[in-house]
Amino acid sequence: MNISAIIVTYNPNLSQLQKCVSSLLPQVEKIIIVKNSSEKLDFSEFQNEKIIQIQLEKNFGIAYAQNRGIEKAIAEGAEWVLLSDQDTVFPENYVSNFEKKIKIFGKNKIYAPTFFNEVKKQNEPVSVSMSKSVIPSGNEV
Question: 92: closest CA among 30, 19, 36, 38?
């Protein structure tokens, strides 16, 4: 599967962003970093053939920035996109587990993982509609 990660940044902590990028780099075909700000940050440490950087003129909002990243991912041949914030660090088997779920449950879905919030020390719920959130357990999809 050709999976690209889209990371939207806004005033990022570069050390934390590096951890995020490093956790995804061996797992995906491309990483597209969308800088959602007019501030020109030095992202020179993110020079890699698998990393594409897009600089926006100002903060257009997360959805706009994600859409620019998705457009680029599609142009680069992505079949799937993984949307991420700038400070999430992914487990080493994250994408391969995702691929297993697709093979079991199919392609016509949106997959939204739960995650453990280190600050709150709890699993965070997934919104399934405007009024309902759930915390799936085990292999529930």
Answer: 19
Under CATH, what is the fold of the domain 3-107? Spore Coat Polysaccharide Biosynthesis Protein SpsA; Chain A (3.90.550)
Are 30 and 52 contacting, i.e. CB atoms less than 8 angstroms apart? Answer: yes
The residue among 82, 88, 74 whose CA lies nearest residue 13 is 88
Q: What is the pLDDT of residue 28?
A: 97
CA distance 114 to 123: 7
- Give the range among 25-34, 95-104, 105-114 with minimum mean pLDDT: 105-114
The predicted model gives 26-49 an average pLDDT of 87
82: left (phi over 0), alpha (psi -120 to 50) or beta: beta
